[in-house]
Amino acid sequence: MLEAFNFRVLLDYMPLFGKGLWATVWLSALSLFGALLVGILACGARLSRLGFLSAAAAAYIEAIRSTPLLAQLYFLYFGLPSLGVRLPEHHTGILALSLNSGAYMAEILRAGVLSVSWGQIEAGIAFGLTYLQRMRYIVLPQALGITIPPLLGQAIVLVKDSALLSLISVFELTRAGQILTSERFMPAEGFFTTALLYLMIYYALKTLSSWWQKKLIFVHPA
């Protein structure tokens, strides 16, 4: 199969793939930061004792999880301008990925917080710790340790979902493969290289996740 590949042309397009890879990395990094911020806020609102705040967070999470990312992306890209809000393509893509992944991260974080036993919280109350002190010294250290591996798993999903940004003219890794395919009519070379580079990103994140899980087992032996 490899004999059929035109490596000479592929080498000519490697700088383009390098730019696409870098664009995917920084778009995913910014989206991941935004998703974590959205997830923390939504988790806090979901766990709030204020009923309207918890209901609003639950509605947002269910709305995001019950609709496809592509529909959310098209709504932001085509729908917002009709409402008078215009954003550059990159900003629209980062916003869509942040809102989508943030809903899933909110549920991961909520599960981590709820996994902390109520007895430990009661002990904190008995020692006179305030709500913020209980969160800082008891709940969050344990919750974050448990939720890091699934959060990294969600980060991998976010990176793969970033390929959809090529549909709104954002230049990234998949778009680089599309350019090679359309200019030289070489879909095998274009999309095989694209898939290979996504695989490299995936294994880098998977290695990080495995390392953290081993560290977690060491810190919290069964």
UniProtKB/TrEMBL annotation:
GO terms for molecular function: transmembrane transporter activity. CDD domains: TM_PBP2. The keyword Transmembrane applies. Keywords: Amino-acid transport, Cell membrane, Membrane, Transmembrane, Transmembrane helix, Transport. Its main location: membrane. Coiled coil: none annotated. It is found in: Cell inner membrane; Cell membrane. Belongs to the binding-protein-dependent transport system permease family. HisMQ subfamily. This is Amino acid ABC transporter membrane protein 1 (PAAT family).
